[in-house]
Amino acid sequence: MEVKIIRSQNRRKTISARLVNNIIQVNAPAGMSEEKLAEAAAKLKERIEKRLQKRGLASPADLYAVAQKLNQKYFGGELKIESIEYSTNQNSVHGSCSYKKRTIRISHRLAGMPEWVRDYVIVHELAHIIEPNHSSSFWQLVNRYELSERARGFLMGVGHHA
């Protein structure tokens, strides 16, 4: 995505960015060094691109509906979750669960994978609400999902390919 730098004599310290006609417009102080400006512009560009990427993902309501369906099927509807959403800053894990807060975050990378893989990760994270560790009883819960072995293999293959 193209970045356009606009220097202003009126700005003293702050730098900001916004999207204008698919161009990231960065407003910066006129006296800011090129090095600092390049670093700040790169961070702002990354933040805007992540925001745009997240907008293109399934809504939290859609993910919540999927989680509730899986909760019903594999846990008898007994689990209560507060929220589930895609996260654009989970690049080394596929999902995470805060079992005390009952919140689940799913990596945005899963949106481009088959639904059964995403569902496996959701079941995995739902199981953490009951078992916060990776004990044998945890894996018994996860393995209720009939495609769990296949999904784990898929995710391992994707990880090695990347």
TrEMBL record:
Q: Which Pfam families match?
A: YgjP-like
Which residue range or ranges hold the YgjP-like metallopeptidase domain? 89-145
Superkingdom to which the source organism belongs: Bacteria
Gene3D superfamilies with a match to the protein in the record: Metalloproteases ('zincins'), catalytic domain
Q: Where would one find coiled-coil regions in this protein?
A: none
- Protein name as catalogued: YgjP-like metallopeptidase domain-containing protein
Q: Record the organism.
A: candidate division WOR-1 bacterium RIFOXYC2_FULL_46_14
Q: What is the lineage of its organism?
A: Bacteria, Bacillati, Saganbacteria
